Amino acid sequence: MQNQRLWTIVIAAILAGGTLFVVWQFVAPTDGQSAQSVMVLDLSQPAESGRMAYNNNCVQCHGQNGSGTDSGPPLVHRIYEPSHHGDASFFSAAERGVRQHHWPYGDMPPQPQMSQEEMADIIQYIRELQRANGIT
Q: Was domain 33-132 assigned CATH 3.40.50.620?
């Protein structure tokens, strides 16, 4: 009875480890790098304003066109698609900061220097980049 229980625990641990490995492969940057190639198409006027605000506030951590850096994750990534991280998540992250949960970069601090209008434009910019790169 104890032998059977031990094997059940071992098998459950192996399955859990395998599942975590597969999930990590889904969300982790490829080849150990956080930066990725991002295609940029024509942007709407709000997204162009968002690009400027993004470059003034976000690019140092999240990279050119949301491609990621060694300091922050790529925002043009399927983990940030609207069905997983809605616009409210982006507003909340900028306003309150966010604890590390998908990536190994540490917590994101609040960004109090950004207005709600700038954030709305930045989100529009990121969403248009996502759509241009097949993330919907």
A: no
